[in-house]
Amino acid sequence: MHVSNSEIAAAFDRIADLLEIQGDNPFRIRAYRNAARTVQGLSRSLADMVAEGEALEALPTIGKDLANKIHEIVTTGRLRKLEALERAVSPGLVKLLKVPGLGPKRLQQLRNHLKISSVDDLERAASKGLVRQLPGFGVKIEQNILKEIRGLQSRQRRHLWAEVEETANALTDYLRAVAGVKRVEMAGSYRRHRETVGDLDILVTARKGSNVVDAFTRFDAVERVISSGTTRSTVVLRGGLQVDLRVVPQVSFGAAWHYFTGNKAHNIAVRVMGVQRGLKINEYGVFDRDGKRIAGRTERDVYAQVDLPWIEPELRENRGELEAAAAGELPRLVCASDLRGDLHCHTLASDGQDSLQAMAEAAQRLGYEYLAITEHSQHLKVAGGLSEKQLLAHCDAIDAVNEQLDGLRLLKGLEVDILEDGRLDMSDAVLARLDVCLGAIHSVFGLSRDKQTQRLIRAMDNRYLQILAHPTARLIGRRAGCEFDMERVMDAALARGCYLELNAQPQRLDLDDIHCRMAKERGLKLVINSDAHSATQLTFLRYGVAQARRGWLEQHDVLNTLRLPVLLEALRSA
Ligand code: DGT
Ligand code: CA
Ligand code: CA
User: Are 342 and 297 contained in the same domain?
Assistant: First the structure.
């Protein structure tokens, strides 16, 4: 049995929810929430730490009691405290807590007077005007509840970052063209480049009298206006994406941008640093003891007031970036222009949509030094996998294109299937002829943790395998990643001179940010690959770069920032 960090974090969050419904001590509730966040952000597996007898109390926010609970869940797979709470509280009530404005006290009233025990119950009662009759509720609160329930329903789905990119660009272009608008910037998880976003947050500065809020609600993709005032508005677009707009004065812009970029934990930590210096920091600015605004125009000014340099949005997750900033040890994050090529793409020869020639020309236009052509192997029949003979013929075709290319070198590669037992779906004799060999799992995702770990390590035992492609095989929102021991796989890769991929396909982004950081901490380089199935998809590399930045990666942590001769040398010694 292996209990993952996410499962432990989810258990703690759930305990916090249930305690809240019971009206328990707020400090205890916060302790569980903080612990959940700590656990979620760890790069090491708690189960492994327990197995190795490491002291969990050394972790921030984890005291003796929580350490015992982690121990219990890791060794028994159960948490008696949680089980007892689950028995005591009805499940519909847990969801009700998510309705903003409904504290545990009001929940009790709803339950006692109207027998409400689910979001649906509440919506029905509020629509019938029953909620307003309860002592302390009233019409206004009833309407708010209804509004929030509807918001909650539309907010439930998270959207892939890449899915909303076009909308975000269209909307900011549209707002920039509105009369009187001076500045338009994205904030929130979108600016932090999380792989998924709950909603979009946009900040605007405008001249007095500008009708920017009005214009916003008339954007052609708006389906429903949830709220609209003089300085803020919330709308839902077709397809269900919610967008929050806020109009802020120029003197506050930096403070507001910092606040609404988040994340919340980062904000709170910065605010605490302010308090330690006798300053009040909020979305309007930084204020001294006399309430005088001493900063707020730019983010840099806000950070400077707590003696920090400006911090890249991708790092703002309260995962150690504030400590690193204070110590002058922020990473110099990798950027798109550091990459010299791409080591994973497909052409018409397997399941790609463009010819070898078209892919090469596109890569040339992007200014790459190299592009590896890596079709599937025959085991993956649905994707037109190549037989040995077909692969050798394809290599000849690549050679022929290379003859005519200037500046760009096509590398002969393969995305070979890793079979269930860890063998590769191609003979060593053929693999020996390639420049690059990626190995990937495309089936039997559900092996036990041990078997999956062994499968991946055995694949890397093959001396020709250089890169483990989309290592967990997850599809965001659709398929959880395979269960295996990531630390062991990374150590095995290091020992064999292999590399792991950060696959940039927006629904994969595999490895994720936390795994990227885990690799970096071990000194394992990653390869950021587009896995393009068409010429236009080569530009997907930028999503991978964003994820790498969230994982604190620098230029030297990424293999394909190397010049071609150095890269080839690194691959040969793999
Ligand atoms: P999302 O939309 O779920 O992908 O995530 P965010 O980070 O975009 O969150 P959102 O849209 O709810 O709020 C945008 C930012 O506003 C958030 O990252 C931090 C800030 N913020 C929101 N609520 C609070 C709060 O209660 N306290 C503090 N300090 N900041 C908040
Ligand atoms: Ca947001
Ligand atoms: Ca928002």
Answer: no
